[in-house]
UniProtKB/TrEMBL annotation:
Protein kinase domain span: 1-239
InterPro entries: Kinase-like_dom_sf (IPR011009), Prot_kinase_dom (IPR000719)
Gene3D superfamilies according to UniProt: Transferase(Phosphotransferase) domain 1
UniProt protein name: Protein kinase domain-containing protein
Any one GO molecular-function label of the UniProt entry: protein serine/threonine kinase activity
Pfam short name (any one): Pkinase
Keyword match Iron-sulfur: no
GO cellular component: nucleus
Keywords associated with the record: ATP-binding, Kinase, Nucleotide-binding, Serine/threonine-protein kinase, Transferase
Length: 239
């Protein structure tokens, strides 16, 4: 069986995500076990492969049919952790590198959108840092078709667009842009802009009534960390 090639080292973030050693290459890899019915991640990777891949999307090395009901994705291992780890260790990421990472992430998301899917769960936790410290977007398990409004509520609450909380159909592409803005803000400040994207969050109320500049006016500790040059960009992303 193909999985004999991979020797388990230790579990990673979830029980179905395992760090393994590839006996053929003597390299560490990650095995992610999915139910075969939840095939959106495999489908996206097949489309990415056909399109030539993307340097900022975590590469799929192999797809193994583990049994009748499961598929194992063999993914490149990124030993430098994720953006959440980086922000946590350094309190925040400087403006220059935050912009570099935003550009890389935006390019990866644009490629995903060109394939007809929104990521659905963009976050610091779903962006790994490769061996060259370039970002690697991962985890397409929450991806949804781009041009089909959905009422399904996915993602992490700190990153979710406000319309997702309404229970009404929402635009997956616009929600990805909102989540990118939340990710960018967290890199710049080391803080989340919103606890919940709902009116009971006082910051969200200010954002709706006064815009992003109004938030910075009320939160001078954030204003000191967000350069004026990027404020118009965040304003556009948070529309």
């Amino acid at each position: 069986m193909a999985t004999c090639r991979y020797v388990q080292v230790r579990p990673l973030a979830a029980p179905d995500v395992i760090l393994c050693r590839d006996l053929c290459t003597d390299m560490d890899v990650v095995l992610k076990r999915n139910e075969r019915g939840a095939g959106v991640e495999c489908a996206i990777y097949h489309m990415l492969h056909a399109a030539g891949g993307h340097q900022n999307i975590l590469p799929l090395l192999e797809c193994i049919h583990d049994d009748d009901s499961h598929v194992c994705l063999v993914l490149e291992y990124c030993p430098n952790g994720d953006l959440f780890d980086l922000v946590l260790a350094n309190k925040r990421i400087g403006t220059h590198m935050s912009l570099v990472y935003l550009e890389q992430l935006s390019s990866a998301v644009a490629t995903l959108h060109a394939l007809g899917y929104a990521h659905g769960d963009l976050s610091l936790e779903n962006v790994l840092l490769g061996r060259d410290m370039q970002v690697q977007l991962m985890d397409f398990g929450a991806a949804v078709p781009l041009h089909v409004p959905t009422a399904w509520a996915g993602g992490k609450r700190n990153y979710m667009a406000p319309e997702i909380f309404t229970g009404l159909p929402w635009d997956p592409a616009a929600a990805d842009v909102w989540a990118l803005a939340m990710t960018f803000f967290a890199m710049l400040t080391g803080d989340f802009l919103l606890d919940d994207s709902v009116v009971r969050d006082p910051i969200y109320s200010i954002l709706v009534q006064q815009g992003f500049r109004g938030v910075l006016h009320h939160m001078p500790q954030w204003a000191a960390l967000v350069p004026e040059a990027v404020v118009p960009l965040l304003e556009q992303m948070l529309l």
